[in-house]
């Protein structure tokens, strides 16, 4: 689907059964969900790209009697290459499966750590939110390219992570899900409950995605008057 921009992403640590770890210490937050926002107080500086690959498998032609008689269509095996200006350093270590020692040093854990991921963009015409959702997978980081500053320039390095998706019970065993805010029967709470079972970030009484503190280094209220009156984001 054609999209415009990258509005953000939401992460959660998962138990092996796919449920969300709803704990600020064992998981990523007290609600279970952590937004990669642009609030410097949250130690985030937002995303640059979310490059989703292999949404479909590679078809293989089946030949017989000198003809193509069928096509094998294997399942998808999506990966997401995330590039961020900055992801909260502690959250980043957690989703990479690293463990903090008593001296504060993070080291690789003994077992893979599972995460869930939602990427949010927009439809070109209606500008309604579009969601690419991955209920279960593993984050990895393969390189860290540290470079010197010069006398005339500051050299920044981005956070570059790869998310490898796997089958998820909430998607009938498939690797990813797609949703559009304007489609019939869409419900944001149900989407978050599906991708992040047990989460309390988006509920019937609170929409964490509308929290004004997710934007910029200061708390700027970006809600409409109607949203303010309805208590959205509070």
TrEMBL record:
InterPro entries: Phage_TTP. Residues 206-234 are annotated as: Disordered. This is Phage tail protein.
């Amino acid at each position: 689907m054609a999209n415009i921009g990258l509005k953000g992403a939401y992460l959660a640590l998962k138990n092996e059964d796919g449920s969300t770890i709803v704990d600020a210490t064992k998981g990523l937050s007290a609600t279970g969900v952590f937004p990669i926002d642009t609030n410097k107080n949250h130690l985030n500086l937002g995303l640059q790209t979310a490059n989703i690959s292999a949404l479909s498998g590679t078809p293989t032609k089946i030949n017989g009697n000198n003809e193509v008689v069928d096509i094998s269509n294997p399942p998808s095996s999506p990966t997401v290459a995330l590039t961020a200006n900055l992801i909260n350093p502690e959250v980043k270590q957690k989703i990479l499966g690293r463990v903090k020692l008593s001296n504060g040093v993070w080291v690789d854990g003994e077992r893979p750590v599972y995460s869930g991921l939602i990427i949010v963009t927009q439809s070109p015409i209606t500008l309604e939110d579009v969601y690419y959702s991955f209920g279960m997978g593993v984050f990895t980081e393969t390189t860290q390219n540290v470079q010197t500053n010069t006398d005339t320039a500051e050299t920044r390095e981005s956070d570059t992570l790869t998310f490898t998706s796997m089958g998820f019970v909430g998607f009938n065993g498939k690797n990813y899900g797609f949703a559009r805010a304007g489609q019939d029967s869409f419900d944001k709470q149900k989407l978050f409950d599906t991708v992040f079972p047990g989460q309390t970030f988006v509920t019937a009484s609170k929409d964490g995605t509308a929290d004004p503190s997710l934007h910029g280094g200061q708390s700027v209220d970006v809600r409409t008057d109607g949203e303010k009156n309805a208590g959205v984001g509070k």
